[in-house]
Amino acid sequence: MLNIVLFGPPGSGKGTQSNLLLEKYKLEHISTGDILRKEIACKTDLGLKAKDLIDKGLLVPDELIIQLIEGQLTKETDSNGFLFDGFPRTIEQARILEDLLLKLNTSLTCMLSLEVDEEELMRRLLERAQIQGRSDDTPEVILARFKEYTHKTFPIIDFYKNRDGFFAINGKGELQKIFETLVELIDSVVEKSA
Ligand code: AMP
Prior knowledge:
Bound molecules: adenosine monophosphate
Low-confidence stretches: none
Distance between the termini: 12 Å
Strand content: 5-15%
Shape: globular
Strand order of the largest sheet: 2-3-1-4-5
């Protein structure tokens, strides 16, 4: 199986690059943000709990995220593996992911970390707000999301960075070029382990 974590701050291009990677490698997309937005749209208990936090730019508690992820990973699928986008976002989630993959007799192939400075992230997110109108793409909420990222999410790099398969990539520039870099890195890991 090919299991990839696409990592990076809000606005770093995870969603865009995910779409390109999914098509190339035929993976199952696990975007916790998308799953949460569906839960909110369906007004489920979990969605109602998550909405307040998301609208404030805060992370949803690990217990809720783990419930969502377990359901997704145990579904029958004919894909070649999983592409995690926006998950894990805390050290606890990173640990849980390892355990879940182990239970499925597999492991993480690589972790690709997209690096973009805050000024550019803010510019992109405000631009996206004009197009998509996401309720958490306002300047105040974006700043709260950056804060959560810095305190809770960025530290998980330490969990991965000394392992094989961790790569930091400059996320600024032409998206096709970034995609090609990601593909080269993924293919190099796959080749090495073949
Ligand atoms: P995203 O679409 O990935 O930017 O996620 C939107 C919002 O959903 C985030 O700002 C968080 O409030 C929440 N969220 C998404 N994924 C997670 C996660 N793995 N852990 C905690 N909260 C999450």
